[in-house]
Structure formats: C-alpha cells, structure tokens
Amino acid sequence: MIAVTQEPIDVDAVLRAVEGPSEGAVALFLGRVRDHARGREVERLDYEAYGGMAEAEMTALAETARREHGAAKVALVHRVGRLEIGDVAVAVAVSSAHRPEAFAACRWLIDTLKERVPIWKKERYEDGEEWIAEHP
Amino acid sequence: MIAVTQEPIDVDAVLRAVEGPSEGAVALFLGRVRDHARGREVERLDYEAYGGMAEAEMTALAETARREHGAAKVALVHRVGRLEIGDVAVAVAVSSAHRPEAFAACRWLIDTLKERVPIWKKERYEDGEEWIAEHP
Amino acid sequence: MTGPDREPTGDGLEVLLFAGLAEAVGRSRLRVEPPLPDTVGALAARLREEWPGLSRATFRTAVNQRYAADESPVRPGDELALIPPVSGG
Amino acid sequence: MTGPDREPTGDGLEVLLFAGLAEAVGRSRLRVEPPLPDTVGALAARLREEWPGLSRATFRTAVNQRYAADESPVRPGDELALIPPVSGG
Q: Is B111 a residue whose pLDDT tops 90?
C-alpha cells in the first residue's frame, strides 16, 4: 500500500497491509500534527504534494527498504490538504520476520521520505502562515 | 495503558492511549505469532505470565522509558493464553514530540520487556511442544 | 504484597513456579516449612536439594513480585517465585 | 510520462511549481517557449533570469517525476518540475 491521499489515514488498513504468517515483527511510525513547532503555537497545517512524483518516490523507497533494509512488507501513506492538531499526516508500516529489520527499515523509510518525497507543509499560526522548508 | 490480558489486543486502543496534542511522533511495535521458529514449523503458542509481577515490571519499564528514554506516553500490552498464527502477542506504543525518542524508547521497551518481564511461551508443533527459554 | 491466589502460610512460605519449571517439578507451588532460611539464596539452595526437578534448573528469584538478589532477606508471608528464563514478546 | 493535468505544449515545455516557490512566482506552472535549452541546468538558469521569484530560490529539478541532475537532457514533452526544499512527514 503506497498512497498520497486527501482522506484521513486508516491506520488499521495500513497495519493489515503488512500482515503475513511469517512476519513476526511489525514496526509502525505515525507522524501527527503537533500544536507547536519551531517555538511557535501551530493552529493547523496544509500539506501539498506533487502527487504523481510523491507516489513514485514512495514506491522506490519501499522497494529499497525491501531490497536493502530487510523489510518483508511495506506500507506508506501520506495525507495532504488541511490537517488539524492530532491528525495523522503520515503512516509508515514495515513487517519482517524479526524486529531489528522492522525497526531499522521503518526508521530509514520515514527519514528518507522526509528528505526526498515532494510534499510540503504550510504551518498556520494565529497571526500568519509559513511554508516550511526542511530538506533542500 | 499497561496490561497482561487473555483477550485479543485492541491495537486502536493502544494507539489512542499515547495520543496527545504535543506528541507528533508515535512508534508502535507489534509482535505477532510466526509460523516458524528455530527452523521448525509452529502451529500455535501458549503464553503464561506471572501476572502481578509482569504488570509491575511493565509499569517500571514504562516509567524508565519516560524518565530516561524521552518517551512522553507509553502503552504496553501482552496477551497470554492460546494464540494462533498471526495473532498479536505484544504491543508497545510510545509517543514523543519528535521521532528519535519515540523509536529509541519503543525499541528499548520491547528489548527490555523480552529480557525481564516474567512471561513464557510454549511452542506447539505438529509432533510436540516446548517451553522456550530465551532470556535467563 | 499479597498475591491473589495465595493462602495464609503461617510461619512457612509458599513458592510459585512457572512454565517449564512447574512442569519439571510437577507442581506450580511449593510449601517451605519453618524454620525459614534467612536469605533468598539459602532458600533456593534448600529447594534445589529437596526437589530433583530444580537441582540443575536455571532460574531467577522474585520476592513480592520483584527480582531479588541471593542475599535478599526472606520473611514469613513473603511472596516468593522462581522465574525460569523468560520468553515473552 | 504524461501528468494528469498537462496540456500539449508543442515544441515548448511547461514547468510545474509547488508550495513556496509557486507563491513566490505567483503561478503554479510556467511555459518555456522554444528553442529549448539542452539541459536541466541551462533551463533552470533561464528560468532564474526570467522570473525574479526564482532568482535566488533553492530548488531541485525533476524530469518526468524523477529528480534530475543539471546535466540531464531536456526534450519537448517532458514533465519538468521545480522542487523547493521538502517538508513532508
């Protein structure tokens, strides 16, 4: 399961996507909208994606996670549009036979997704808004 | 949420237990029953716990995760009794403001739970069964 | 601390066994009559002598649901447990 | 590869802009008329000259939805995009 979606992320479906009888370990990362960032209070976020390329990059990341990081199954979902505090912005799930690979691949995926995948967030504050540029 | 339970683990409830407006990162680990172990085909597992002590140890682990590993909120649930292939045996959820702490605390918790918490599994095979002694 | 399934033991003690250790001994609790040994280590040594299933077994010991060192004291009414190598998760 | 929202551009090209870059330029796509530059780097240099909002901007470039090096070729019909620093997750 690889998707960029306007809809709320269905975490159960993300977890089901990596189930398997030989996969004893599942690592899941959820990125939720925080009420603060960079020392400022955040009211909400707007995410924009270069949709086709974002999904292509995420598909490539999932393949690398399986080939090089020991992941058996991978699910990557990023939400876009308007998100409120507490909403899940991104879900990364990895299964493998044992836990070291599941943790390592999950961590590698979220780190690399944040560096490479063409998605941007705009933070909305009480008194303004700002596009965040995290990874050049 | 700290529990040793006979019932199927409600993963949604585990994730809800670590929600918070300042916690932007959630790391979840699920240990599921695998169809193989130690080179043998496994038909199912039976878990036994020293219930009161297991919950006391898990409570102590959660406190240490918060005090020393940067966790904001922790949920630990272990299922006991008869488990089939694919059933979730253990769920570990950690939230924190940022992801390094969530990953590190989640990994430390499952590693340390496996070393310390008085829970035992018996593997059932087609032709027998065996109590598993993993951490002396 | 009183476990949910313990009965009064007077001046003696009951010791809980689990998993493979309970199967090796054939019981999930053992009674230790007074006089009680002073320490966890002395009590464990006495149990290893009395019960062949324990003589060469690997276990840690818990007193009142906490892991206890060999030199920890043992008192009437304590909840003792022999903890074979764990395999949760 | 043809993006879902692209129109035929003949011998020219359209370039997609996103997020802060689109706001700085005031548009989310730019038309580049022939003759086309040979490479991604030359095309980016031309856009920086033509559009003040791009002159000092930080961006990577993608061709047909893949990150592309400055020396990558540019052909009519390619889907070009300027990718400002990302902040997903």
A: yes
How many angstroms away from the CA of A34 is the closest CA of chain B?
Answer: 5
pLDDT of the residue at D7: 52
Query: Are B118 and C86 in contact (CB < 8 Å)?
Result: yes
pLDDT recorded at residue C11 = 82
Q: Which CATH class is domain B2-130?
A: alpha beta
pLDDT on residue D1: 42
A16 at B interface, C-beta within 8 A? no
More confident residue, B38 or A11: A11
The answer to whether the beta carbons of residues D40 and D69 sit under 8 Å apart is: yes
Could you tell me if A83 and A44 are in contact, meaning their C-beta atoms sit under 8 angstroms apart?
yes
DSSP-derived 3-state class of residue D80 = strand
Structural domain boundaries in chain A = 2-130
d(CA A51, nearest CA chain B) in Å: 23
Q: What angle do CA D27, D30, D36 make, to 5 degrees?
A: 165
From the candidate CATH numbers 3.30.70.420, 3.40.50.150, 3.40.50.1000, 3.10.20.30, the one assigned to the domain spanning C13-83: 3.10.20.30
Exposure letters B9-23 (e unless 16+ CB within 10 A, then b): bebeebbebbebeeb
Q: Which member of C60, C65, C83 has the closest CB to residue B52?
A: C65
Is cis: bond before C35, omega within 30 of 0? yes
What are the tens digits of pLDDT across the range D8-57?
A: 556 889 999 999 999 999 999 999 998 999 999 999 999 999 999 999 99
> Max Cα separation, chain D?
39
Terminal-residue alpha carbon distance, chain C: 26
pLDDT tens digits along B112-132: 999 999 999 999 999 999 999
Token pair of C53, please? Answer: 């299933």
> Is A57 in contact with A77 (CB distance < 8 Å)?
no
Pairs across B and C, CB distance < 8 A: 80
